[in-house]
Amino acid sequence: MIYEFNGYKPVIHESAFIHPQAAVTGNVIIGKRVYIGPGAAIRGDWGKIVIEDGCNVQENCTIHMFPGVTVTLKESAHIGHGAIIHGSSIGKNCLVGMNSVMMDNVNLGDECIVGALTFIPEGMEIPNRKVVVGNPAKIIKDVSDEMLKWKTEGTEWYQKLPSDMKNKWQECEPLREIPEDRDDQSREYETWREKQKG
């Protein structure tokens, strides 16, 4: 659902995919190969939201701000399921974990990884390539080259997803029985823990 508000219409690149159950309102700019999942609320009603090329905002995320503020997700930012971004700036190629909360005036540097359920309080400045966890958030270590490679590979899956959704996704009636020839999807990507064990 795409909504004009107070004279501002969202600007969305044609290669982006916005799920019809997401809501994008007002002064929002969405770049190339961006994926916005169902239930996401991207509210540019009081301020501006810029989502640069290659970002993803997954299911049930909220992006909002106080009046007159611009929220920026820089290129290839990866916002996990249920996260809340309120008046923050997210650096290039960052991962914000599931159900994390980033409060106003947070500046998350490039190539950071924020753990699931992390609460980052108002005004926290986080340098580039840091791992951030906890409530309240603490910087616990640097992002290694191996961690960054793993994160980047995961985001690349989401950067392919808009095209896949446009070509392979359609409303349908459900089957009533499992077909005998139905295959499982292949396992082509590992969680961080699985990768460490391997």
UniProtKB/TrEMBL annotation:
Pfam families: Hexapep, Hexapep_2. It comes from the Bacteria. InterPro entries: Hexapep (IPR001451), Transf_Hexapept/Carb_Anhydrase (IPR050484), Trimer_LpxA-like_sf (IPR011004). Residues 173-198 are annotated as: Disordered. SUPFAM superfamilies: Trimeric LpxA-like enzymes. GO terms for molecular function: transferase activity. Keywords: Transferase. This is Transferase hexapeptide repeat family protein.
